[in-house]
Amino acid sequence: MLQAAVPYEIGEPLVRRQRHLMSRLPEPLPEPRERRDIPTRARRHDQDSHAAPPITLAPVLQDRTVRMSVVIAQMPVVWDVEANLGTVRNVVGEARPGDVVVLPEGMLSGYGEDLTPLDDLDPALLGRAVERVAELAVQRRVHIFAGSLLPCGDGWCNAGLFFSAEGGHAVYRKINLAMNERGRLRAGDGLPTFSVPLPEGHVTVGVQLCREIRFPEQWQHLASADARLFVYLTNAANVREPGGVWRSHLISRAAENQRFLVSANLAHPDQHCPSMVVSPRGEVLGELPMGPAGVLRRDVDLAEAGDWYLGQRRQDVVSLTYRGNPGS
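The chain above was modelled as a monomer; its predicted structure follows.
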């Protein structure tokens, strides 16, 4: 039989209310079981052959503050290198020194489900666009993450590029290609991380592209490689995708790894993945409306990232083995 609702008074301690509703609740309330200051204890293996191994807690960065100002740009992406470069200039022109600017997948080259326009893409023109963005990063003293198709040997790859405010750029080549990319683009063979210089020191960042949101083992490897921030670049505008699924994936990748996640999608009426910032707890700290172009700025403290859950993995039962190119 349903019990009558008990009114709740503003300011009433929650514990008192819980005890009123749950007369069998133990007194006093037990301490929460999941706390970072709990000393780790486990039975000796020789006492129980099936006992879980002792929990190893990796250190967290709570002894210092690591501030980062992130700017997400949800912008149109077209098959026109000069037009895309103009969009990047406009976004970076509004950024402040020290900002980390994040732009969508295919931002420089253009991108779409139909890759036929790739036949007419000029590698030399694209190469000059990459050089221009590298110059912009130095001139404006900002760090930039942006996607682009890039020449790879005698073919093309889908890449995420990091342009440092200190000069130069580095590349991540997408390892898990979408179905429309297979047979047309070359897959990468490694999961590199990038070192982003900040006033408090260098911070490690991992990059993933579009459908790689569906492969959590890649994200866990990047977290194990000490990435404190995930940068996710996508070109997700597909009416066949159910609403909300990719948003849920983003929150899960952040929370399960206790990492900040920043996603940038293109501006498109059929957009099915949001551009947003997610905390290591899975909290959405900011989100742009899907569809129109927009810019979102958030300040985050990367010291909030941690290894509490990663440190409790039962790697004696299940573990990941990285076979990627060590040089990637």
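The first strand starts at residue 67 and ends at 74.
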